[in-house]
Amino acid sequence: MTSQEQAGTSVTTSRRSKITPEREREFYDAVLDQLRENGYEALTMEGVAAQACCSKSTLYRQWKAKPQLVAAALRAGRCVKFATVDTGTFAGDLRSAARAAAQQAGRDTQLVQALGHAVLSDEELQGALREALVEPELAALGEMIDRAVARGEIAADHPAIEFLAAQLLGVQRIRPVLEGRYADADYLTRFVDAVVLPALGLSEAT
């Protein structure tokens, strides 16, 4: 093969490997749908290719293997539920955050459950899950706390602050285990009023 032919082949391969953002989103949606429905172990590149109407080679060429594809899909599905919450009071922010969390509680919990042991054994998946579902909410909660401290509603060194994220995020994950139901808005707002606010020294009327 001449150098000109090799160059032509390289250009063709490069063009073939390009995927539009819209098409990439379809691949990621297929991955997340199958994760929630079947779990990580049952998810296959073949299944994703079938749902996304593409060839397996397309997926392998872009993401090499299942863990990389799943990690990319998780990061692309990143959704910051608490980012726009700002009611003017800490109690109001926490209630609004609870309602926002309820909108995605089922889907988020399904993802966590679907990844199961795979997250514990694969650092890339673990990092992607934290980046998609945990770190954005921790950052948003941190901003709520900073505003509350600035308003004088709570002391910066209040001991309950350390456990706030574990309370709000943990209760979403555990309710399906304990009661077989996802944490809806009513459940989470009642949890905030009965557990979170008293722990912070705030009242329901705040």
Automatic annotation (TrEMBL):
- HTH tetR-type domain residues are 21-81
Q: Which Pfam families match?
A: TetR_C_11, TetR_N
Keyword annotations for this protein, in alphabetical order, are: DNA-binding, Transcription, Transcription regulation
Q: Which Gene3D superfamilies match?
A: Homeodomain-like (1.10.10.60), Tetracycline Repressor, domain 2 (1.10.357.10)
- Report the SUPFAM superfamilies cross-referenced here: Homeodomain-like, Tetracyclin repressor-like, C-terminal domain
- Which ranges of the sequence are annotated as binding DNA? 44-63
What highest taxon heads this organism's lineage? Bacteria
Q: Where is this region: Disordered?
A: 1-22
Polar residues bias (residue ranges):
1-14
The record ties this protein, via PANTHER family, to: HTH-TYPE TRANSCRIPTIONAL REGULATOR RUTR, TETR-FAMILY TRANSCRIPTIONAL REGULATOR
Task: Give the protein's recorded name.
Answer: TetR/AcrR family transcriptional regulator
* Classification of source organism: Bacteria, Bacillati, Actinomycetota, Actinomycetes, Kitasatosporales
